[in-house]
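[Solved] Which block belongs to which protein?

Original post:
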Amino acid sequence: MALKSYRPLTPVLRYKTTIDYASQLTADEPYKPLCLHKKSTGGRNSHGHMTVRHRGGGQKKYIRTIDFKRSKRDIPGTVETIEYDPNRTCFIALVKYLDGERRYILATVNMKPGQKVMAADMCEVAEGNCMPMVNIPSNTLVHNVELKLGRGGQMARSAGAYAEIVARENNMVQLRLPSGEIRNVREGCVATIGQVSNMEHMNVVLGSAGRVRWMGRRPHVRGIAMNPVDHPMGGGEAKSKGGNHPMSPWAQKAKGLKTRTKKKLSSKYIVSRRTK
């Protein structure tokens, strides 16, 4: 899949790139019975106070209900369409099962309409099929990985993401994540075979401020451009941090500070931390 570039008729078009959706997607409209209305908060909580900055506006979106649990077991399904989802970076696939029910799942790199998929305790090792990792061979790429039995996929769900099964030990499966981290997951947890679609997402250049606003992101003012009363890094006669380490408006250090809780329960499942 290639990116689309544009003739530089304006300064914006010189750098702007987009995904070539026409070569990937097979439907223009979502399947409405699986859509929900999404209410925009604008970064405000139930009291109307701003709790998340730089959010607001943007295009209205429907929430597509995605089947992360793949709970439709032992019933074959057929991929009907590959669709765009504004709420995530990857594409989604509409699957029609043998009993007539339709569900959305995450689309894999090579998924096409007409492809057969299934979720079962034991099935063919093919893209889009879902089964417990105890039955998936080593060195297989998987995504939508469960961390707790029955909770549904939580890991490796964004565009181009995958995890690789590298070893098995003590009822655990070791997964190598894209970051380089190796992590233990219970072998009974399910995962879907294949790599998530839309690998070129990371190479897209937005190119214009307006395109960022369509995504619901408002302008971000640098702390160094503010006054001392507004930000710890504000003030000074020129571009000066005032002798301070880069930090947030509330003096939380922004570079190098480890934010992971040392006593986090899931730390015992990490075999080796990600590589630098």
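(Second protein starts here: sequence line, then its structure tokens.)
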Amino acid sequence: MSRVAITGASGYVGSAIARRFRSHSWDVVEMGRRAPQPFDLASTNLTINWSGIDALVHCAWDFKPRNWAEVERANIRGSLRLFESAHAAGLRRAVFISSLSCFPGCRSLYGRGKLAVEAEAARLGYAVVRPGLVYGQSPGGITGALEKAVKSLRVIPLIGDGSHPQYPVHEDDLAALIFTLCQLDSAPAQPLSAASSEPIPFRDLLRRIAARHGRNPLFIPVPWQLILAGLKSLEALGLNPPFRSDSLTGFIFQNPSPDFTLAHQFAYFRPFQ
């Protein structure tokens, strides 16, 4: 039986990937703070038993850091230690789950942190995948938060005029891509932007979600600068709003021209319904 180690396997994206591997009779080794295989991004004492592991999928990411020093300490260094350990053990197949928010020139701390880890993964010959907005039957993460808001609120603030393009990717299509990459003899040389290539304006995305739940909320456009200032004020007070200021930065300043060609050579990505 083939075995894959997955960091962040208890999270939304990680659990979807784990289901894919298990459905194809792979043994999944969950790596995390309370997982059978202990792993902590922030730990400097990394001891991992790579015996019998055929592939690694790195999904874990700590979203609590709010400045670059914390991102570097909590996420970048831990990810680099993980990949170096796997490479030293002779592991040839690994996939780093990055983000469509990550691209040269990105402004968000999240995107910049992912970009730093991407470089190390590529140097070691590992694959890099940049998912778009992940959704599914019971979505988590940002999509889950959007669904919750649409289902519970009658009036929903709209970021700007709601025209910012979104590139959704179904969790099953993303998982299928990861599964394929973990069986290749060599990783693609470039990051794979994984999503439907058909952009959906943010306002239309919310309207489709609302229609699916039989809702018709009122959308109120709000200047993004005002929303950003409000989020930063809440964070400065030590509060944790459901949507982070850094996430809004990545939302506003997106990759102007993501290229989905390479990823579509390995998997099918259904349009958002």
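Accepted answer:
You had them paired correctly. Confirming on the second one: The chain has eight helices and 13 strands.
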